[in-house]
Amino acid sequence: xxxxxxxxxxxxxxxxxxxxxxxxxxxxxxxxxxxxxxxxxxxxxxxxxxxxxxxxxxxxxxxxxxxxxxxxxxxxxxxxxxxxxxxxxxxxxxxxxxxxxxxxxx
Length: 106
What we know:
Blueprint: E1 23-37, E2 42-56, E3 59-64, E4 68-71, E5 77-91, H1 93-105
Antiparallel strand pairs: 1-5, 2-3, 2-4, 2-5
């Protein structure tokens, strides 16, 4: 297997920009498999119950109920198996930067 570059445009996932700044997806009794991809957004996966495996960069993480995976923007990641209930929250970089600016002013 060859080296996969983060800038491989074939692996880029275009995430739609809605008026609501966060994208929230809920999966119940889900087969935790999704193709390898990257995007500039931060992504959170909170596992409610079940077990699954996340490939993040070159590492594989075993997740189970109560675990939270934080996937930084511009990082290759994919779900490689398991069955679980989980929520995926996709946070645009612009949204995070606005929160940081707000907190610095407070």
